[in-house]
Structure formats: structure tokens, C-alpha cells
Structure of Two component transcriptional regulator, LuxR family:
Amino acid sequence: MLEQSMAPPHSKILIADDHPLFRDALQQVVDQAFPDAAVLEASTLDEAMIIAAHDDLDLLLLDINMPGMNGFNGLIALRNAVPATPIVVVSADEERETIQQALTLGAAGFIPKSMAKASMVQGLHEVISGKVYMPVDLSAPLTRGQMMIDDDFQQGYAALTGQQRRVLEMLVLGKSNKVIAFELDIAESTVKAHVSAILRKLRVNSRTQAVLNASKMLGTVRAMPSL
DNA sequence: GGGTATGATAGTGGAAGTGT
DNA sequence: ACACTTCCACTATCATACCC
């Protein structure tokens, strides 16, 4: 029998999904898994960011197809905003690559929307106890924030610090060092140092290579400004 | 048109400050 | 001690403007 609640007695759990019906369904799952938890809801990435910033969340359930998500960028943004909060990605997409990407980018678990309620409850218990939950056997050891794809770039990405990931995200958006420095309120030389560290960890020779690979890995198609 | 000076930008190396 | 963040000084590259 499953333990009823590994979560703190008054834990806060955010359900971020744009479909009210599915939010209701997820809330039933959460209620069953953690009867004492306070459940918050968001229907857009912006709402989720605001709630995550103001509430000390114990768990976040995130629909990756929600408005504003832009592929996995929303997951990355939330991970950077609340690095200590485990994030479970909820998606109708059950492709192995999607699951691997979500876990690579720091998700604490992946729950397909087609999954049985009991399995979802079990998955949430595993995540809240500090484990990584995945719906299928990906046949390789996996830890939160890491990955098992034999890919230097993705391994490098997992090794980036929070600030380095923020800089990389802005590089992907085509921003110059000067603009990044302004927006992060740091010196341009600091941005350059971060870029150098990013290139070293990602094992690429230029920001252009880093941006191209990052765009591919994040699963987003962007108009690439001149770099 | 070709050479040179200048400015903007990218990238590296090293060092200091801070938190764990 | 170590990792991370930040900054400075420096070099390299590229585009543009100017002069001959």
C-alpha cells in the first residue's frame, strides 16, 4: 500500500494547465495523493511564474502545451525561477524523446495525460519523496536534472549553472552580450565570462553553435537573428 | 580600389568576493 | 576548500569610414 503523504503537512502544490477540465482531474489526483495539501491553479505560464515566485511551492505540475510555454522554454524558466521546487511535466505527448528532454531539462517527473489515476498518484508520491518518476523504462540510470542520452551537448547543458542557463536562453533569443548584461543588471564582461563557460561546458566553439544546438534541443523553431 | 584607423562585439585568462 | 558570480584587462575579428 502506498504511503498516503510524504509531503509536508501543509504543502502547496501548483497545477499549471490551460484546460479547466484537466486541472480538475489533476486536482483529484493531488487530493488523493496528498489530502492535506493546498492546491493552487494557473492557466498560463505567466500565472504559474507569478504564483511560483510568491508561494513556497512543494510541487509543481506543468502542462508543456500551455499558452506561453514555447516548447520547453517554460519549463526552463520555471526551473530557473524556483530551482528547489520539483516540477512534474504533464503532457499528452508520450514520445520517449519528449520524456527524455523533460527530464534532461530538470523535470522531476513526467506524467502522460492518458495515464491511469492510480499511477499518477504513485508518480507524485515518488517525486515528492525526492525520486525521479518516469512512465516508461528508459533503460538507463537517471537522476533529477541529468540525462542519459549519449550526447555531449545535452550533458553539457545539464552541467550549466542557473545563471549560465539564463544567459544561454537569452543567447537563443539572439540578444547581444550588451543587451544580456543590461537585462540581467550585470557587467558586459560578466556576460562574456558566462558565455565562455557555456561554450566550454557545451563543448562548442562559438555562440552560434551553442544557439543552434540549444534551439534544436529545446524543440523550438525561432527566427534566428544575426549573431 | 586598396590601405589604414576606428569602433563594436566576441571571447579568454585571471583574480576577487560570497555562500556553502 | 570549493563552486559560483562578478569584474577587469587583454586580444581577435569584423564592419565602417576615411584618405590616398
